[in-house]
């Protein structure tokens, strides 16, 4: 590896050496090869594109569906003195335009994009004029319809190569089966196979799946016993609050987290957990992506995950410091039925999907023949209640509408308020003289932020309210007035998911839905559900079962999961019972009843089972109803 890569790693991240496979992946990218890298959760995927991008002239374009992770990485890069920007759902056209200009003409090194943005001709055309050095595709399993988290906008990624044919793809993911690995490379048009796979083995994780009628009591006992911080995953928002309350009542500092909270609330709760102000966060699966907390000692699932891919990702948030940690599933027999029922609800029929589209257009009052490019805040729960529709089928209907190119729906994430002056400094001074009520606010903005005439800047209305000694509402009123006068652009904060119509409204009866894809997707999901149930019911070793699922065929027993511990206990007990039998029979031959009664370990059934095994192996003999030890052994 060149000294450049090591010096970059040391300068920006403070590490003296790379983790396993990082060097090889970076070298592959530097040599211009399309590359697929599979690194487990916490394996350092971002380093694999950030280091080579800094080694080369030009800009790295990073595609990720996780807006929260995108914002977090941009903030970290900027903190380290690296110029990075992001474009995601919720930004206005003018804001996007300025950001893209900076990428074409400025010194930006990283442009983060949500995949939905690649539907835009504006974005694709500007990328054509950028000096791109690498396309990094995070969560690359989303491109495969055989993957557990297929995202239709990822199908647009291959078009990036049309813009810059010689620039390599680096596709990254933490979870992919053999079929998905092949599909990712085909969808991205790799000229030849080029895959780096780090073993999915996490040998410090003691996986457990325990059938338990009293989930709450068992959960509390586990948390008290293990100590340290952890995550409890549940399926719905209501349960997050209920479980957090139970933990608090049992003396465990806890809080709840779900996508329905405001951005400020989510940030506060996450920070409290990250800094160990609370021990346990009870959350839906909206929590955890991109969070790197090393000292998580346990991850408890109170509901069965939808797939082993999802479970591996969520369980993998435990033990990133390399120390022993415990991913635990607590389940009841009825949970398997719930999983199957959810599967069926996830595949609504074609008329229901068409009807959902019709209601969406009515909900936003979109006229026939109009609506293309329209982006709006969207609350799926409110929508489903308004039209008395079942929530799970509605959410999945929208995924199929997205796949067929009718709309896109971004994740819920807080987008801060943004502000930009639309007139030059001379004209602005005239406004300050003419309108005294704006003067103090304008001065405060100019003193606080640079570049506010050229770019949108992130602003905090509460901060200005404190500085100026006026109410928050008055600050917002003044900012809106500046926009009404066309002096400035003001984009208030939002934390709602963003729905974008990609085509003009059509009559729902003529709406095309790919029923073949839905059928194939149903088969994929059915296989995932069966894989999850087999993991619970049929595994001989939890870790081995996961590794086999991901194609590692030579995996041995981990010796630390619940099944391995049970097996080891039985093996140790068997050896001890065998020694007891030997001692008893060497003292004197015995009838079966007397021999069984002379033993102290195991149940009667277990003792008889071992006696029969020893008899079959001729380790003991049976003559005239008396058992004796074969002295050859």
Automatic annotation (TrEMBL):
Metal-binding among keywords: yes
EC number: 5.6.2.4
A GO term, aspect molecular function: four-way junction helicase activity
Residues in Helicase C-terminal domain copies: 218-358
Assigned keywords, A-Z: ATP-binding, DNA-binding, Helicase, Hydrolase, Isomerase, Metal-binding, Nucleotide-binding
First-level EC class: isomerase
Substrates-to-products reaction catalysed: Couples ATP hydrolysis with the unwinding of duplex DNA by translocating in the 3'-5' direction
Annotated GO CC locations: bacterial nucleoid; cytoplasm; replisome
Keyword Cell inner membrane appears in the UniProt entry: no
SMART domains the UniProt entry points to: DEXDc, HELICc
Lineage: superkingdom: Bacteria
Pfam families linked: DEAD, Helicase_C, RecQ_Zn_bind
Record domain Helicase ATP-binding: where: 26-194
GO BP annotations listed: DNA recombination; DNA repair
Family: Belongs to the helicase family. RecQ subfamily.
Name of the protein: ATP-dependent DNA helicase RecQ
Origin species: Sphingobacterium athyrii
């Amino acid at each position: 590896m060149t000294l450049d890569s090591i010096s970059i790693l040391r300068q920006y991240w403070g590490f003296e050496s790379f983790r396993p496979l990082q060097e090889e992946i970076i070298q592959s990218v530097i040599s211009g090869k399309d590359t697929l890298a599979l690194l487990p959760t916490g394996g350092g995927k971002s380093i694999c594109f950030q280091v080579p991008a800094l080694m080369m002239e030009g800009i790295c374009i990073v595609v990720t569906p996780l807006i929260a992770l995108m914002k977090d990485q941009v903030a970290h890069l900027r903190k380290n003195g690296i110029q990075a920007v992001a474009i995601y759902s919720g930004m206005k056209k003018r804001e996007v335009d300025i950001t893209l200009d900076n990428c074409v003409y400025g010194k930006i090194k990283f442009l983060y994009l949500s995949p939905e943005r690649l539907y835009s001709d504006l974005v694709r055309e500007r990328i054509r004029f950028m000096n791109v050095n690498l396309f990094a595709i995070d969560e690359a399993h989303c491109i495969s319809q055989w993957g557990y988290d297929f995202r239709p906008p990822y199908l647009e990624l291959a078009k990036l190569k049309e813009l810059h044919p010689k620039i390599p793809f680096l596709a990254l993911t933490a979870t992919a089966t053999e079929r998905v690995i092949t599909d990712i490379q085909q969808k991205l048009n790799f000229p030849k196979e080029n895959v780096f796979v780090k073993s999915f083995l996490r040998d410090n994780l003691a996986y457990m799946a325990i059938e338990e009628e009293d989930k709450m009591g068992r959960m509390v006992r586990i948390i008290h016993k293990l100590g340290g911080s952890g995550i409890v995953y549940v399926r719905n928002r209501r349960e997050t609050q209920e479980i957090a309350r139970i933990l608090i009542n049992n003396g465990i500092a806890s809080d709840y987290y779900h996508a329905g909270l405001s951005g400020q609330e989510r940030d506060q709760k996450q920070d409290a957990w990250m800094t160990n102000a609370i021990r346990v966060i009870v959350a839906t699966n909206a929590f955890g992506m991109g969070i790197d907390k090393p000292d998580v000692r346990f991850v408890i699932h109170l509901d069965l995950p939808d797939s082993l891919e999802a479970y591996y990702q969520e369980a993998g948030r435990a033990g990133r410091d390399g120390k022993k940690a415990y991913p635990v599933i607590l389940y009841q027999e009825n949970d398997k039925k719930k999983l199957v029922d959810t599967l069926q609800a996830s595949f609504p029929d074609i008329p229901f999907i068409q009807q959902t589209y019709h209601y969406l257009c009515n909900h936003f009052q979109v006229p026939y023949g109009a609506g293309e490019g329209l982006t709006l805040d969207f609350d799926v729960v409110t929508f489903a209640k308004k039209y008395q529709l079942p929530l799970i089928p509605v959410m999945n209907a929208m995924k199929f509408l997205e796949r067929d190119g009718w709309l896109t729906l971004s994740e819920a994430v807080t987008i801060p308020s943004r502000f930009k002056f639309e007139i030059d400094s001379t004209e602005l001074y005239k406004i300050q003289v003419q309108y005294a009520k704006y003067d103090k606010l304008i001065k405060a903005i100019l003193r606080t932020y640079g570049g506010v005439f050229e770019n949108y800047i992130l602003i905090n209305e509460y901060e200005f309210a404190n500085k100026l000694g006026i109410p928050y509402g008055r600050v917002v009123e003044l900012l809106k007035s500046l926009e009404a006068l066309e002096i400035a652009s003001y984009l208030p904060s939002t934390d709602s998911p963003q729905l974008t119509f990609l085509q003009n409204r059509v009559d729902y009866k003529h709406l095309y839905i790919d029923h073949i894809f839905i059928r194939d997707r149903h088969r994929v999901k059915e296989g995932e559900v069966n894989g999850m149930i087999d993991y619970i019911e049929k595994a001989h070793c939890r870790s081995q079962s996961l590794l086999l699922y991901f194609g590692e065929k030579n995996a041995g027993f981990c010796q630390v999961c619940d099944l391995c511990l049970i097996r080891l206990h039985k093996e140790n007990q068997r050896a001890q019972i065998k020694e007891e039998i030997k001692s008893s029979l060497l003292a004197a031959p015995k009838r079966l009843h007397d021999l069984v009664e002379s033993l102290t370990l195991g149940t009667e059934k277990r003792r008889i089972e071992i006696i029969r095994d020893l008899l079959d192996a001729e380790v003991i003999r049976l003559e005239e109803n008396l058992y004796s030890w074969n002295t050859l052994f």
